[in-house]
Amino acid sequence: MKKLTARLTETVSAAFEKCGYDPALGSVSVSDRLDLCQFQCNGALSGAKIYHKAPIIIAKEVAEALSGASEFSKIEAVPPGFINLTLSDGFLLSVINETARDENLGVPQCEKPETVVIDYGGPNVAKPLHIGHLRSAIIGEALKRTARATGRKVIGDVHFGDWGTPYGLTIAEYKVRHPDWACFKEDFDPEKDVIPDIDEAEMNEIYPFASAKSKEDPDFKIASRQTVVDLQNRRPGVYDLWKKIKDVSVESVRKIYSNLSVDFDCWYGESDSDQYTGELLKILTEKGLLHESDGAQVVDVSQEGDKIDVPPIIIKKSDGSSIYATFDLATIIQREHDFKPDQIWYLTDKRQNLHFVQVFRCAKKAGLVPETTELRHLGFGAMTGPDGKPFKTRDGGVMQLSTLINTVEEAALEKLKDSEYITGDRREAAHKIGMAALKFGDMQNQPLKDYVFDLDKFLSFDGKTGTYLLYTVTRINSILKKADVGFDEVLCAVGFFGKSDRDLALALALCGESFEKALADLAPSALCESAYGVATEFSKFYRDNRILSEGDPEKRASWLALCLLTRRLLVKLLDCLGIETVENM
Question: pTM here?
Answer without folding.
Answer: 0.94
